[in-house]
């Protein structure tokens, strides 16, 4: 396009009534003409006075557009010479000949192969509550008035240092009360300096694998295991080796033991999702194996506070004398998921490195929330809340167990119901648990298929993860009847139902 034709080209495209302001239209049209090379590099554009006159606009409007284009590098001006289109897309980069410029662009790869694998195996749900979402606490029972009172105290006299980045490791006061709590309730042996405050278990594990392994290193994971942690490990570049579990927890074979990994990730207090507790013999074997082979053990202690009929179990870390165990936990289930505060307990020799790396990678904040949480724990509200919720969840668990047995008797096996916020309803071989979960979602019931938690192809068991933490007592039986209505056809006419059904 010749500069002499620019006024006519613009006049045909500017909308005088409604739509975008004239300034935005003129800017956009000139930008488009330059980027499409309809106004080639070096073209002298009309003066602001001339263009304003030809378009019937105020000169200030055109002047402001030219100034904005110059600021962004589309045009340049020289006193006494005029305004010219910049050479903003050099031929040596985009291709010198017009055929190359006009050719269709190469199709971009929207996602990397790693990103595509992550999304393919993603288990995140749009639903985060209701019957029967596993692993979600009842946030309606959180003592919001107490939390609000503590938070208001800080807002009234807010120290400026609570509004900046977190110091390495997190707020010292929170680390102190956490150390006291973990020593007494979980038998974790630690000092405040060994605790690094994070946003939760995912970040804690991400930090550990970044500092303790390299791409291609092998990590053992329990099979089945939590899909969210599995995703963190997969995108880290580690090679995942699925180790089956039995009634005593992770159960490596002789061949597995002959080829030690760099790391192991275990849930010894409440295996996720099947719920067994790692035996003392298996714990001691694992610790000795790690000591002899220089392996790191990451202990994911995600919901050990909620045990029914017995006290919470001691941690694996408390048995570790060689400094091989990295202990991770969070407040997502004990308080509320949106708090996004967790912690990682590392051996003494690693505390400075982990604190520095956490600050370097994640630039943590949330100091105000950390201060409130420290007060909440220090004043005893945390242990009181856990005690109340343990009683409530235990009641809901029992209602769900009674409802299942009323419907199916002993025909379906129940696993993992002694702790946590979910149980597993085992299904007969051949029943497609993914299809059952899909059918349940269609009637507004959320369950997760057990087979989706297995890493080894063909080794998955059929079953449903059924959460009860965020389901009111009076809603459990009606909701389960809806689930049973879609489950029964999958079980088939030959299935032996309870005589009470």
From TrEMBL:
InterPro entries: Aminotransferase_I/II_large, HTH_trans_reg/aminotransferase, PyrdxlP-dep_Trfase, PyrdxlP-dep_Trfase_major, Tscrpt_reg_HTH_GntR, WH-like_DNA-bd_sf, WH_DNA-bd_sf. In the C-terminal section; belongs to the class-I pyridoxal-phosphate-dependent aminotransferase family. The lineage of its organism: Bacteria, Pseudomonadati, Pseudomonadota, Betaproteobacteria, Burkholderiales. This is Transcriptional regulator GabR of GABA utilization (GntR family with aminotransferase-like domain). PANTHER family: HTH-TYPE TRANSCRIPTIONAL REGULATORY PROTEIN GABR (PTHR46577:SF1). Transmembrane segments: none annotated. One of its GO terms (molecular function) is pyridoxal phosphate binding. It holds the Pfam family Aminotran_1_2. Keywords: Aminotransferase, DNA-binding, Pyridoxal phosphate, Transcription, Transcription regulation, Transferase. Residues 20-88 form the HTH gntR-type domain. Gene3D superfamilies: Type I PLP-dependent aspartate aminotransferase-like (Major domain), Winged helix-like DNA-binding domain superfamily/Winged helix DNA-binding domain. It comes from the Bacteria.
